Amino acid sequence: MSDEPFAGLFKESNVFAQREVLSPHYIPAHLLFRDSQISEIVKAITPALRGERGRNLFIYGKTGTGKTSCIKHVINKIKELSSVKARVSYINCRIYNSRYRVLSKITSDHMPLYAKRGYGIIDIYERIINWVDEDGKILIVVLDEIDVVKDLDDLVYTLTRANSDIKSGGIAIIGISNRISFKEDLDPRSRSTLYEKELVFPPYNSVELSTILKDRVDRGFKPGKVDPAAINLAAAIAANDSGDARLALMIISKAGEISDEKGLEKVTGEQVREASKEADEEIAYELVNTLPEQQKLIVYAIALLSLQGSRYKKLTEGTDTYIFSGEVYNKYSSITESMHKDAKTSRWYRKYISDLEMQGIIHTYESGKGIRGHTKLIKLAYPPEKIKNTIEKTLFKENEAATNGGAA
Ligand SMILES: Nc1ncnc2c1ncn2[C@@H]1O[C@H](COP(=O)(O)OP(=O)(O)OP(=O)(O)O)[C@@H](O)[C@H]1O
Ligand SMILES: [Mg+2]
According to CATH, what is the number of the domain 291-403? Predict the structure, then answer.
């Protein structure tokens, strides 16, 4: 076999010095413009460091506003302090998405020997309580992306209940979410538990994003390889879109890849513009992938209808396909039925539609009088074919796993 296919791998980049500095997993040594949020988090956990439970904290902010980075930063600082009673479990709820998984993760973090044995939930619960009680620990449970926990009310109830079963010490919860409607959809009891204290992360403006990018570009790229105008453009695009630092970083790093592919010596505004288009789509697919199931099914219905073309009533404006909201609902109901699931009522459906619009996945507009009275028209913001494929990959795989007994 010739080495040819791998040749590109070893070719030195024209523009990058350390690619990984730009990766989404890289944790920057210092976080810019987040001093006040970091000090609020520290304030919230100070009681825990003294051995008191303090109040639960809820952190809300749009995607890419630095929530995960800041909390990890603070956790690393706590771990450096020796001899504190506070222990932390950072839990990414996308992976640990049920009460059982969260409690298991806590035991595997702190009681690794016990954790291996596949106990039932009551055993795990008692084990955690005894461990906290032993010497009056304060366990801080950080639930990042808390909105994806399937049985969240049970989890919150269990952790609250634990505090009344624990004699000395306690458990404090830090919840983190980027979903706007999360708070209002919560069960009132869970809400009052989780929101004892609330902290909001605002989106970054373009000046802030520029500074964040410059800092990262200085370390990730070779000197002089990124046009300052390109940085400002990437920052402006991301600020205009959502104030998302992850998007800004993704754009500049893709722009670097494009420059390399084309053998250019420098990253300019042109590559940034090209990169921003690619990044936009990538983010949309990721967003669709992480939607709750019912919303995913609605988007799926819209994608199918958009692809089916003329059999369905549609309105063609140039090349855009708009579909009647009522048809989407019918399609969605029949999909859920074929999956042996219950469709949500049309009231929920309308709420989901407005959530999806807010997230930029669909566009809607009200038809004027004449077309079936007043009705809403819906269009996908991204190519339906790709959306359909993305959803089929995740949705049907998950359901297969569930019916094959993919237990807790
Ligand atoms: N203040 C900052 N300074 C430097 N880099 C930052 C800052 N805020 C965010 N970033 C970078 O932006 C990216 C996204 O940040 P982070 O993951 O913390 O966002 P998030 O608010 O948790 O988003 P999500 O809601 O999508 O989980 C990370 O790669 C991080 O390095
Ligand atoms: Mg995060």
Answer: 1.10.10.10
Domain 8-25+204-288 is found in CATH 1.10.8.60: yes
* Token code pair at residue 3: 């080495």
Quick: pLDDT tens for 294-334: 999 999 999 999 988 644 444 554 456 788 899 999 999 99
210 in ligand 1 pocket by Cβ < 6 Å? no
Distance 69 CA to ligand 1 centre (A): 5
* Ligand 1 pocket member 69 (CB < 6 A): yes
Q: What is the pTM of this model?
A: 0.80
Tell me the domain boundaries of the chain.
8-25+204-288, 35-201, 291-403
283 Cβ below 6 A of ligand 1: no
- Choose which residue among 33, 67, 69, 215 to substitute to test ligand 1 binding: the one with the highest number of ligand atoms within 8 A of its C-beta: 69
Helix, coil or strand: residue 30: coil
Q: Which ligand is nearest to the CA of 143?
A: 2
66 CB under 6 A from ligand 1?
Answer: yes
Beta-strand relationship, 314-317 and 197-201: unpaired
Rounded Cα distance, 124 and 287, in Å: 33
Residues pairing with 364 in the sheet? 378
Q: Is 354 helix (H, G, I), strand (E, B) or coil?
A: helix
Model pLDDT for residues 103-124, shown as the tens digit of each residue: 999 999 999 888 667 789 999 9
